[in-house]
């Protein structure tokens, strides 16, 4: 049996503490240090029984972790990950992988050239229901995937915007929230060739979008729509429908993604699969519906277990820096499409 890996946390805020909650439940890894310049994080590190550092480089030199979870502010993601990679330490890097594609490309190159892995924190891909949906789509259970409908429509309370950066340009729901949905759409449906988009801030009037409508053309020919708003009293979103995070009261009967192909259709998160009894049937025959089985489990814990295996070099990251960079490139294409009114292609990313 391997000794538990020593994991450090950089950024002991809301998300970092969620990771720690799951880390405590693992036999294969233990927390060894906390790095976060906020004074209150020193007390938090003491509560956890580990040494506190204000600075990541000092932490790496002193604690010599086997891996680092990075959950600090978005603008620090790339520089922090580069510091860890330079010390030869694999990272679990929260989403977004960075805020600027040019900067993220340096991280992709550093991980490739050093051979030190980056696991990007698109944790929903680890959710067993997404694992099952991915199997179904890729096994051909839906036939040729043709149309994709994604919904992210919910209401953030006004208090959410008390924190100033949440009202400012660049920090809107595209980069904060829809990045998860777009990452899943890439994962389930394939790469996106081009997008058209309209965004609006008409409800709140802040510096970032509160509504978005996106048209997606996938490389496999499928066509999709993603409509998003964080200013509507509606029940259609992964957050409300999947039950993944108990802080959101669940609307378990409502879908957030509808995938339809020539041989069947799938609603997510319900995992109901619709199909005809025979090939060649059509709208005059009844559609049959199957409830696809999966074993619910916690995506964040499964992601950490995967990170342990990534550190041990037993598996490649499920979401590499290059993979996460493609999701960021898709966000940038949507922004450009919304700003120009043109169809835009995501910038290519070399692995
Ligand atoms: N995967 C998800 O579903 C999900 C959900 C929420 C947040 N996140 C991501 O997690 C990250 C953190 O978000 P949060 O909501 O926990 O924010 P937060 O503000 O609660 O926590 C950020 C922490 O980083 C610390 N920090 C600031 N500068 C630092 C530095 N130089 N070095 C180390 N630590 C530093 C802050 O003191 C704070 O404790 C963000 O990138 C966010 O996008 C992901």
UniProtKB/TrEMBL annotation:
Residues 5-122 form the Gfo/Idh/MocA-like oxidoreductase N-terminal domain. It holds the Pfam family GFO_IDH_MocA. This is Gfo/Idh/MocA family oxidoreductase. Residues 131-236 form the GFO/IDH/MocA-like oxidoreductase domain. It comes from the Bacteria. One of its GO terms (molecular function) is nucleotide binding. InterPro entries: Gfo/Idh/MocA-like_OxRdtase_N, Gfo/Idh/MocA_Oxidoreductases, GFO_IDH_MocA-like_dom, NAD(P)-bd_dom_sf.
């Amino acid at each position: 049996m391997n000794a538990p890996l020593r994991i450090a946390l950089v950024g002991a805020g809301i998300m970092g503490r969620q990771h720690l909650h799951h880390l405590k439940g693992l036999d294969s890894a233990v927390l060894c240090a906390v790095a976060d310049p906020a004074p209150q994080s020193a007390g938090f590190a003491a509560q956890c029984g580990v040494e506190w550092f204000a600075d990541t480089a000092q932490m790496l030199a002193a604690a010599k972790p086997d891996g680092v979870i990075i959950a600090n502010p978005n603008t620090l993601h790339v520089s922090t990950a580069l510091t860890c990679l330079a010390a030869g330490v694999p990272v679990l890097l929260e989403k977004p992988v960075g805020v600027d594609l040019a900067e993220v490309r340096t991280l992709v190159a550093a991980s490739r050239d050093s051979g030190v892995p980056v696991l990007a924190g698109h944790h929903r891909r680890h959710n067993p229901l997404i694992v099952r949906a991915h199997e179904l789509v890729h096994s051909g259970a839906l036939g040729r995937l043709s149309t994709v409908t994604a919904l992210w429509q919910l209401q953030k309370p006004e208090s959410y915007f008390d924190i100033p950066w949440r009202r400012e340009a660049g920090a809107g729901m595209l980069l904060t929230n829809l990045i998860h949905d777009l990452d899943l759409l890439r994962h389930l449906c394939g790469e996106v060739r081009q997008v058209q988009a309209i965004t609006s801030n008409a409800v709140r009037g802040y510096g970032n979008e509160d509504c978005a409508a996106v048209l997606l053309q996938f490389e496999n020919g499928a066509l999709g729509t993603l409509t998003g708003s964080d200013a509507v009293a509606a029940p259609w979103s992964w957050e409300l429908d999947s039950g993944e995070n108990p802080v959101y009261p669940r609307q378990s009967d409502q879908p957030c993604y509808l995938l339809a192909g020539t041989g069947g259709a799938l609603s997510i998160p319900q995992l109901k699969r619709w199909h005809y009894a025979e090939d060649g049937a059509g709208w005059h025959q009844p559609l049959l519906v199957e409830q696809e089985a999966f074993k619910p489990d916690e995506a964040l814990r499964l992601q950490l277990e995967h990170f342990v295996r990534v550190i041990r070099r037993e598996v490649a990251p499920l979401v590499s820096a290059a993979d996460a960079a493609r999701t960021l490139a898709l966000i940038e294409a949507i922004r450009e499409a919304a700003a120009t009114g043109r169809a835009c292609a995501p910038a290519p990313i070399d692995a």
